[in-house]
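I'll show a record.
***
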Amino acid sequence: MDCDLSNDNKGFKHFFVSTSWLHQNLQASNGVVIDCRFSLSDPNLGRQQYEISHIPGAHYFDLNQDLSGLVGSQGGRHPLPDLTQLAAKLASAGVSSEADRSSWVVVYDDSRFAYAARLWWLLRYMGFDRVAVLDGGWGGWLAAGYPVTNQIPVAQPQTFVPQIQSDWVVDIEAVKRRKNLPGVALVDSREGERYRGEREPIDPIAGHIPGAVNYPWQEVTDAQGYLQPLAQQQQRWSALRPAEEILVYCGSGVTACVNLLSLAIAGIPTGKLYAGSWSDWCSRL
C-alpha cells in the first residue's frame, strides 16, 4: 500500500511507507526523514541512540525538547509544543510548507509509533499532510539490512509556515461539555490495566475519564512495530464509525496519536486530541 509521496499532490493517502519505499527514495532532494526515538524512563537515550546510528540523512527530534511544551501545574505531562519553535526546527531540517517545494516527511521510532505518531500528528495539525510513518520503524530498517550512519546531516534551510487546524484539539472544558453528547465518543488509548485503574505507573491517580471506552494504542501494530492490516484497522473502529466526533486521549497526549493514526488509516477523519489527557484530567480532581 505504498504511495509515491513525491508525486502525490493531495498528501499521503495511506499515511505510512515501507522500509523498501524509503530506501528507494532516500536520496530524493525534497524528502526529509526524522528520527523520533525516545524513552520515558531515560529521556537522553533516544538522542544517544541517534548519535550512534540512524537512517542516513535523518534528523533527530526529541519528545521533550521539540515535540512538547513547558510543563505547568496543569495541562498534562506533555503539552503541545510552541508551534513557532517547532516550525523553525522543521524549516532548519529542510521541511518546506511551500506548495511548489513539495516536501515530504517520513518519521520513525523504535516504539511502535509511540513518538513518531506524535510528530506525524503535529505536522498534520500544522497543515502539512505530506507526512508518513515508517512501517516497522527502526527495527524494520535494520531487519531489512539497509544502511545506517552516525553522520549528522546538514540541511538547506527552508520556510515552514504553520496553518493550524485548531479544531483538531480539545481542552478539558470541551471534553466535559461534549463527552456525553449524542454522536460523541471518548476514547482512552492506554493499556487496559491503566484504563481500569488496576495499575498507574506514572500519574498520581488511577482510573479513567467517566464515559470513556478503551482502545489500547498497542493494538494498532504487531509486536514488531508493523501496522495491522487495513481490514483490521477498519474493523477495530467499526463500533465508533457512526460517531460525529471522537475525542482521543492517553496518559499525556502522546500515544493517543497512534490511535489518531489508526483512525486516519481506517478512513475515519473525526478524531480529535485531548492534548492534556489523563495527566491533565487527574491533576484537577
